Amino acid sequence: MNKGISSIPINLRVYSPHVLNLTLIDLPGITKVPVGDQPPDIEYQIREMIMQFITRENCLILAVTPANTDLANSDALKLAKEVDPQGLRTIGVITKLDLMDEGTDARDVLENKLLPLRRGYVGVVNRSQKDIDGKKDIKAAMLAERKFFLSHPAYRHIADRMGTPHLQKVLNQQLTNHIRDTLPNFRNKLQGQLLSIEHEVEGYKNFKPEDPTRKTKALLQMVQQFAVDFEKRIEGSGDQVDTLELSGGAKINRIFHERFPFEIVKMEFNEKELRREISYAIKNIHGIRTGLFTPDMAFEAIVKKQIVKLKGPSLKSVDLVIQELINTVKKCTKKLANFPRLCEETERIVANHIREREGKTKDQVLLLIDIQVSYINTNHEDFIGFANAQQRSSQVHKKNTIGNQGTNLPPSRQIVIRKGWLTISNIGIMKGGSKGYWFVLTAESLSWYKDDEEKEKKYMLPLDNLKVRDVEKSFMSSKHIFALFNTEQRNVYKDYRFLELACDSQEDVDSWKASLLRAGVYPDKSLTENDENGQAENFSMDPQLERQVETIRNLVDSYMSIINKCIRDLIPKTIMHLMINNVKDFINSELLAQLYSSEDQNTLMEESAEQAQRRDEMLRMYQALKEALVIIGDINTATTFTPAPPPVDDSWIQHSRRSPPPSPTTQRRPTLSAPLPRPASGRGPAPAIPSPGPHSGAPPVPFRPGPLPPFPSSSSSGSGSSDWFGAPPQVPSRPTRAPPSVPSQSPKF
Q1: pLDDT digits over 652-674, tens only?
Q2: What's the longest Cα–Cα distance across the chain?
Q3: Rounded CA separation 740/132 (Å)
């Protein structure tokens, strides 16, 4: 409220055709002694605020110093040297030249001979408070300033490089240099933006919302694009590969070759129940008599029952494929979102067709199963027959069922089926938290390592007698868990009966189960204790019946492996032919016709409000980018670049010690301005300062009376900073002066 400071600027915009497009930041001088309600650290606060502005690389620093003070003690030059050691952004400004004592002048300073700066000094003469009170305008003040430099014997030879107009030219040249320096990168950025939207804008250029031919063409193009996208997602494509998730075709592939075989094995293997059914069938066929031979009717009855069980997994695979097709359709229609009715109708028509094909596909799948049930071909070349079945041991089938896809692999422990990260959840709980390991599954063992470099092996678990079962997900965990256990009631790992492994998603669990299935580790489908005790003990198994059951079991095992192999091959082919290929053909040939018959074309092609707004914005941006590139080309041809002057020895700034001036006269300080480059001479391009003229340094003729008596002030120097030229701050040793008419507007840079 009184004499405190704030780094939040007070903004004033000056609009005029006679000012430069620059921003001036007028900074305060550094106060040495707190005045009024100023805090004790006011000097530190002001310094930090000044540094906040002048450290920016796009800021020119106008180091303003009164001519009637010691230049070596200038706070403005010292701070400028700290942030601009090369002197590329610092321009010295000398004020109060008309108030110097008689017999003294600042000629050596202005000629850059005494205490030199790389960009030199510019002298200015501002209005006095009396001039301001007398309504002396800026034009008259600039004429008076010009007259002062032309009439003063010490400055007349450099008058063309003195005064506020010349300072304006210097700053304007720096602005030009800065713009030219930044133009190449700016042009490249604009050209990149133009190229990125050019393809999209091409379709908007001749856009006529009510043109029926445009709507017809757009509808045809979008339906064709929808068909192409759908086919790419199903069949796969090398362009625009999605690296974040599996596409529809890849997911359907997993259904065919992982989920479907897994469901078959999970459904099939319940050894005790199967053997009990075989024994019941044999006994029922013999009836009251005791059979001497193994009845083949028992074999057919058991095989047919097992074949019928394949209907469940087969129909489930059809449902999974249908769901993926519908999801794929929804993803492909996202490109039609600009036309809501078209998007909605396309989804509805294709989904309805998929549902129609669902019934026919399921009928065909069931027909395939019924065909297998209708005739049991015991003359199949892969069927072992009764003679071989009686010779096989009861344990052989455990490693050679059709569910074990690993049987086609060479019997080597080095065959890797799968690798990946898993978390051992039950062991981690005992030790204070779950821990992840890198697991490697082969045809014979499951090993885990500390990390994926596979250097530090933690354990190797043989797969003999192992099975897998689901574990209920904990409400405290987001992980999905499955467990491995030994069928002979032995510990799986150290003292643990179960090895619980956790994945991030159910999809990962299913994938690991399918991989374990390939290695011969089957899902657990054991009977409950009640079933075993209540039914299995109701009959005795004599040695002859046991041999007959084992024979039938081996025959069923052999024949079911033939059936499973056939079904696993035919079901995906059936779904592919009746469902997937048919939907693709429908989209390519009939979708457009059904869209035309469903609704009026104008209704279908009614674009959303968001799309209309986006089209207008894209066209405006495209035009603006083209105009900007034209302007940049004009700037390159219509402007010149002035090189920076050579370095000078300005070490005097670093070594000088700030000493209090002999009088309380306040020193005005860095007026900071913005652009980067260097001052250009008002009349010539040469950066060098010309040698002094024939006139010697005679006592100056003051333009107005000598200096007024100084009066104390709280600030020892003034400074201005900005993205552009800074007007000199008020001089406390005489009435306050208005800043020169140098403009101040426009963005910083």
Answers
A1: 665 554 444 343 333 444 443 43
A2: 148
A3: 12
**Cβ contact 612:166 at 8 Å:** no
- The count of other CB atoms within 10 Å of the CB of residue 512 is 20
| H or E element that contains 469 | strand 466-471
Q: Are 480 and 506 in contact (CB under 8 A)?
A: yes
**Residues facing 419 on adjacent strands:** 440
Asked whether 39 and 4 are in contact (CB, 8 A), the reply is: yes
In terms of Cα–Cα distance, which of 675, 671, 684 is closest to 730? 671
Q: What is the pLDDT of residue 536?
A: 42
Low-confidence ranges of the chain (pLDDT < 70): 1, 203-212, 238-240, 243, 267-271, 286-296, 385-414, 427-434, 474-477, 525-546, 548, 650, 652-749
Of 174, 16, 160, residue with least CA distance to 726: 174
Distance from C-alpha of 46 to C-alpha of 276, rounded to nearest angstrom:
96
Whether the CB-CB separation of 519 and 441 falls below 8 Å is answered with yes
If one counts every other C-beta atom within 10 angstroms of the C-beta of residue 161, the result is: 25
The CB-side HSE value for 332 (13 A sphere, CA atoms) comes to: 27
DSSP string computed for 659-710: ---SS-PPPP--EE---SS----SS-S--SPPPP-S---PPP--SSS-PPPP
- Contacts (Cβ under 8 Å, ≥6 apart) of 251: 324
Which are the contacts of 355, defined by CB distance < 8 A and separation ≥ 6? 322
- Distances in whole angstroms, Cα of residue 367 to Cα of each of 209, 604, 618: 53, 41, 57
Residue 630 in tokens: 């034209």
The DSSP 8-state label assigned to residue 270 in this structure reads -
Measured CA to CA, the distance from residue 395 to residue 375 in angstroms comes to 28
Assigned token pair, 584 = 């693709």
Q: Is 145 exposed, middle or buried (0-12, 13-18, 19+ CB in 10 A)?
A: buried
User: In this predicted model, what pLDDT tens digit does every residue of 229-245 receive, in sequence order?
Assistant: 888 888 887 666 776 77
Calpha distance 484→413 (Å, rounded):
20
257 backbone dihedrals φ, ψ, rounded to 5°: -110, -5
| CB neighbour class for 679 (10 Å; exposed up to 12, middle 13-18, buried from 19) | buried
Contact 411, 463 (CB under 8 A): no
Instruction: Quote the tokens at residue 479.
Output: 């992980």
Q: List C-alpha distances in Å: 225 to 89, 158, 333, 608.
A: 57, 73, 10, 19
399, two tokens? 């490693």
User: pLDDT tens-digit profile of 82-127?
Assistant: 898 888 889 999 999 988 888 888 888 898 888 888 889 999 999 9
Indicate the SS3 state at residue 618: helix
Residue 28's alpha-carbon distances to 57, 73, 715, 748, in angstroms, are: 20, 17, 8, 19
Distance of CA 277 to the CA centre of its chain: 60
Q: Which among 241, 21, 4, 8 has a CA at the least distance from the CA of 744? A: 21
DSSP 100: S
